[in-house]
């Protein structure tokens, strides 16, 4: 997204800031990938993975929004 148009349109604040849409283009999850960006071995909650699994199995996303963890976007 070199122009940053998509990031602006979605309201992204940090990288990564994940947006997961269902087949009807409805936002079902927004937020972090997991709860520990520093140490993969210490991850306790895989938020994005859980949201994807829920959508694929027809379940409700357990936590539709989490606080993004990452560097703030440097707007041009």
In short:
By secondary structure, the protein is α+β, with helices and mostly antiparallel strands. The chain has helices spanning 5-10, 47-56; strands spanning 14-15, 18-21, 27-31, 71-72.
Topology of this protein?
Elements: H1 5-10, E1 14-15, E2 18-21, E3 27-31, H2 47-56, E4 71-72
Antiparallel strand pairs: 1-4, 2-3
What's the total helix number? 2
Number of E strands? 4
**CATH topology type:** Glutaredoxin
How many whole angstroms does the radius of gyration measure? 13 Å
Mean of residue pLDDT values: 92
The shape, in one word, is flat
The figure for the number of domains is 1
By CATH, the superfamily comes out as Glutaredoxin
Describe the sheet with the most strands: 2 strands, antiparallel
The ordered H/E elements are HEEEHE
Q: SS-based structural class?
A: alpha+beta
Which descriptors would you attach to this protein?
Glutaredoxin, two-stranded antiparallel sheet, 17% strand, 76 residues, flat, 2 helices, alpha+beta
Notes on the protein architecture:
- It is a single chain.
- By secondary structure, the chain is of the alpha+beta class.
- It has a single domain (5-72), classed as Glutaredoxin (3-Layer(aba) Sandwich).
- It has 2 helices and 4 strands; from the N terminus they run H-E-E-E-H-E.
- The protein has helices at residues 5-10, 47-56, and strands at residues 14-15, 18-21, 27-31, 71-72.
- A two-stranded antiparallel ribbon has the order 1-4. The protein has a two-stranded antiparallel sheet with strand order 2-3.
- A hairpin with a 5-residue loop joins strand 2 and strand 3 (27-31).
- The model has no long low-confidence stretch (mean pLDDT 92).
